Amino acid sequence: MKDIIRNIEAIIYASEDGITPQDIKHVLQEALAIEISKDELQNLIDKIIIKHQSEDEVLELKVINNSYQFLTKSTYHETINQLQLHRDKKKLSQAALETLAIIAYRQPITKLEIEQIRGVSCDYSVQRLLEKKLIQIAGKSDSIGKPLLYSTSAQFMNHFGINGVRDLPQLKDIVSVDNEIGEVVE
């Protein structure tokens, strides 16, 4: 049993962007030639979660975008933040962030629609976001010329630590009531 748990930990650790329970089950069947039920697998994963809650562990097992990933505990976020600051190549420009936000909230969306919202060309931003795999081509629009439709990717979900678009902050969560124009009637 302990050997299976260590194999599951190794599988999750070696997975770049997280791994689904179905994929873990498949890998275990192929690698160890064992048959494991969904409930048995979940029980073993729960044991791994409990094991990594110890103060001696720097990693914890999290579910993001319906996939398991080992992440550093929040205690070490400042240290990891400093590491990230040294990785300038990962930074997105303000224009790319604006483009990404538009795609996230309006997906699927065409490049023309993004440009109409931003008021400027977004060719470079879209290309950078595709290179970083934060967005993906979601198909073609039915409008004239059949332009490409863009949506966020699984990498976007992983990067921002959310399970889906429904987890994005809503406008009402961001804008404060104090930011109203006009008189308040009581």
TrEMBL record:
<keyword id="KW-0963">Cytoplasm</keyword>
<keyword id="KW-0159">Chromosome partition</keyword>
<keyword id="KW-0131">Cell cycle</keyword>
<keyword id="KW-0132">Cell division</keyword>
<dbReference type="Pfam" id="PF04079">
    <property type="entry name" value="SMC_ScpB"/>
</dbReference>
<dbReference type="InterPro" id="IPR036390">
    <property type="entry name" value="WH_DNA-bd_sf"/>
</dbReference>
<dbReference type="InterPro" id="IPR005234">
    <property type="entry name" value="ScpB_csome_segregation"/>
</dbReference>
<protein>
    <submittedName>
        <fullName>SMC-Scp complex subunit ScpB</fullName>
    </submittedName>
</protein>
<dbReference type="InterPro" id="IPR036388">
    <property type="entry name" value="WH-like_DNA-bd_sf"/>
</dbReference>
